[in-house]
Structures are given as C-alpha cells and as structure tokens.
Amino acid sequence: MKPIRVGLLGLGVVGGGTYAILERNREEIARRAGREIRVTMAAIRESDLAVAQKKTGGTITLIHDPMAVVNSPDVDIVAELMGGIHPAKELVLQAIAQGKHVVTANKALLALHGNEIFKAAHAKGVMVAFEAAVAGGIPIIKALREGLTANRIEWIAGIINGTSNFILTSMREHGASFEDALKQAQALGYAEADPTFDIEGIDAAHKLTIMAAIAFGIPMQFDRAYTEGISKLTSKDIQYAEEFGYRIKLLGITRRTARGIELRVHPTLIPAKRLIANVESVMNAILVKGDAVGATLYYGAGAGAEPTGSSVVADLVDITRMATSDPGNRVPHLAFQPDQMHDDVVLPVTEIETSYYLRMRAFDRPGVLAEVTRILADLGISIEAMLQREPEAGEERVDVIMLTHQTIERQIDQAIAKIEALDSISGPVTRIRLEPLGPA
Known about the structure:
This protein is of the alpha/beta class.
C-alpha cells in the first residue's frame, strides 16, 4: 500500500519534533498504522530555510507558501502546526474544502472557531484531529472521547499550563515573588517575552473549552469561560495555604451541575495530599471524574517538541487507520454525534459553588472578628477554619485568614464588599477559590 502523504504547516518546535519522530520510528509507526506515513513537504519562513534543511536533510520539499502545501496533490493530510488564528483558520478550512484530513495543535483556533471547522469537516466527510492541542504529550482527548465513553463525565480539573505551574512552584519552594519567578521562567525559556496568555489563564481557558465540549457534548464556548490568572498571587498566600494543608495551583475546572456547566480558570487551593497538588515545575496533570470509573489522573509533559509531536503523530496514525472508513462510523470530533450536541447553559462565575480562602488585614482590636463573622453568617456562609497572626512589632494590623464551606460566589462577593467597608479592615480582601477534588 502506498504511503499516506503529510504536509506540515510549520517546521518549528512542534513541526520539527513531529518530523523527527516520524523519521526515527518510521517502521514502528507503519506497523501500527498499516501503511507508511511520510512527510512530503513543509511550509516554512524564508528565514528558517537553513535550519529546516538541516532538520530534514533535504529529503522533503520546503516552500514558503503554506497554501501551496494545502493545495498540493502530493499531500493527503495537512498538519497545521503554525499556531495563531490567521492564516491558520483559512488554511484549515481550505484543506477541508479540498477533502483533506487535518491535524492541528492549535488550541486557540479550535476554542474560538472549532464549531465552524468541525461543521465544515463533517459536511465534507473528513477528519480533524487535535490531540496535541491540549496538554502536549498527554493523550487526554482520546481518553475523554474514547476511553471514558461509557461514563457520564461529572467534572474535569487540570493543571494545563506549564509556565504558570513553574512560577507557582518557584514561589512555593523558594519564597520567590511572582515577578522574580516570572523572570526565571523567561530566562529558562518557559515563558514568552509577553507571557500574558500563560499567566492570565487564557491559554488554559482555550484548552479547557475544548475538554468541556468533549466531556459534556456542548459547543465550543470560549467567550463564556471565566479566566483569572496568577499575577496577583503573593508568596504570603502560598505560605498561608501550606499552613492549612493546601497548595495553590492554576486550575482549569469544568463541572456539570443541575443549573448548568461551570467553565473557569483561576488559582485554586487544593489539599496537599492530592496527587495533582504535587505536580510541579512545567508538568501538566488532569483529573477527570466519571460516574462509573471515578476519578482518573493523567500526567505528563504539557509542551515541548517531541511530547507534543508524539500527540501529532498519534493523530496521523488514527487518520491513516480510518481514512478509508465510512465517515458515519468514525469517532465524532467532539465525542457526541453532531446532531446530539446540547447548548447547555454555561454559568457566570457569580453562580458557581465552591469554597473560599479569604485573607484580610484587620486592626488588632476587640470585636473585629465578630463583625466579620456576623457578615458571613448573615449571608449563610459558614467558616471551616481560621488563622490569625500576631501583630509584628509596632504594627497595628494583623493578617486574618478564613476558609469557608461551600457557597455561591455571588454571596461571597456581597460578603467581601461588606467586609471591605468596615473601618476595622484595611485594604482589599484577597479571595482564592478552594476545591477538595476528592473522590466524592
């Protein structure tokens, strides 16, 4: 059987890793796929020509026009590994219009335009595979879409951005400030010069949007995801969390509730005894709770040339195996049959229900705690634990930290507004959400 021919759009970190794996494991991959998978051409920047020639040894066609790769008769599968929205969207839609299958690692493209792309692919009878778009080398898409298909997924909680996890690890282990930890991440190449997408939770929200669609059979709804980053966290809060037996991680959380779907990214206190709380540095981990299987954990490298390339190659193998099958017998792009997708309500963050860490600066005088606890009690918010620091020499104010039981966020919003209005409270109240992530 003749080889299936792949055109790479991009031969950078992920494209280079994909090419290297295909070359190194050529025979093993062919044995699994049933035929050889061969890269025939790649689109690169003119400035990258010398590097690309060195990577490929001059064995494939290198051109500077990605649309020429998409339209080439010598390409059966287009692997979009460029990133960004434009021209990636146009290239993917053109490949689909040409009747070609697509593999992409582009989480932003899918989170924002996945509904349009999957609709076009379904109409044309081609596959769009995207394992590499979420958590690099961790096969979480296949697990959600196929491995856990017997389950009604209840919730997903994941550390799905390695940059932010590295920063939080540095802050916890070395007592570094956020600013210093970010500089270290940039110096090591873990963070971009402009790290906004990573540290403000946008990258994680792109990935969470994709997982939520597969888990619950809903359209991509990135615009409804709540995002809050780690740039305002202090080493003080990380230290206090430790004293209570918790770690702080930037989590992407999506949960099915009776009132709708929660879709949120934010710093979160997790019990230190949980495995996911002990995932450090740039590693990723995702917890998935199914009604039949219970909680399952997926751990591994969330980025990098070959970890992400591993997922791209896995998608190429899947497409090669299924390329000649009837489209109606293939695994649906988002796990559910296209006519069975539900546009369930995605709850605003004010309607989520969780527990909270509250830290406030209070004047050290009688009656202050009584005022605060009365406000919480009037709003039906109960306290699970509390810590009050002794005042430092010459200081009139002390840190008071409270952990609450579960409540609805809008009630916490009301409580914080009333607490901050007290004369006995100095400055804003710090609020961090808390998730037990237990088996129940």
